[in-house]
Amino acid sequence: MSEPAKIRCSLCKKKFSTEGALAHHARDVHKKRAREAKPVLIAPPQDDDDDDGMVSLFAAQRAAENAEKAKRLAEADVTGWKQNTLFHFTRVVDGTRIDWWPSTAKAMVDGRMFYGGERVRQAFQRLGLFTGAAS
To answer: What's the rounded Cα separation, in Å, for the pair 92 and 83?
Structure first.
């Protein structure tokens, strides 16, 4: 199976997959004007099909999810936590390591993952961290 055409001859607009093929073409076909033949990149075809609105639906879902994550991160009380990255915090309580990702409402306590705001809140309450919103 041949490669798809990536470049075009600037003199005759014929398509080629490599610059070497274009150089041979220019030498053999255009002869005296071979040095004038320059590769012109062919832009890949744009897919304007929106798949029945699914692209815009997914974009809207992604935007809503990102807004929710930003809200959770802004509301998180990170006092006493060591910030490892923008989204990851750690803390050691009575020898128990706790990793917390407030933006995605996840926590890991001694290797056990807790998903969702309520489960994370319950895990933190059992450790006596805080009784407020832990998301």
So the answer is: 13
